[in-house]
Specification:
The structure is a single chain. By secondary structure, the protein is of the alpha+beta class. The protein contains three helices and six strands. The two termini are 21 Å apart.
Length: 140
Amino acid sequence: MDELLKSQVRHIFDSANFVHDLGIQLTRIEDEYCESTLVPAERHRQQHGLIHAGVLATMADHTSGCAARGAVGLDYDVVSVEFKINFLRPAVADRLRCRGKVLRAGKMLVICEAEVFAEKDAEEKLVSKAMVTLAVKRAF
C-alpha cells in the first residue's frame, strides 16, 4: 500500500469523533487489512462489568471500514450499509484488539470480516466476529 493511501486510511480512522472519544487506536495498516486496539476503562463497561457490546461493535465496524477504505483506492471512500456481529463470549480484557480484513472488494460493495480479541494475562481470546458490508462512493 502506498504512503498516500495509508495516510488517507489513517485520516479516516482518526477523524471519527465517536471512535476517538472511545479511545480506539489504529495500530496497523496493510493492503485490505487494519488492526485497532483499545485499553478498556470503566466507561466501556455495561451493568455487569463486562465490556459493552456497543464498544465491540464499534471497533469491528470502524476497523473494517478502514480496511475497506484501503481497498478502494484514492478516489473513493466507503460507508457501512450493513453489519452482523456475533458475541462469542463475555469480553473481559486488559486490552481489546480488532483485526479487520477485506473478503471481497467490488465496484459497488466491499465485504469485510472483523474479529475482536480480548487480551488478558498474556492470553488472547476471540470474543466477537462481524461481517460488514460497505458501499463504495466517490471520496467526500
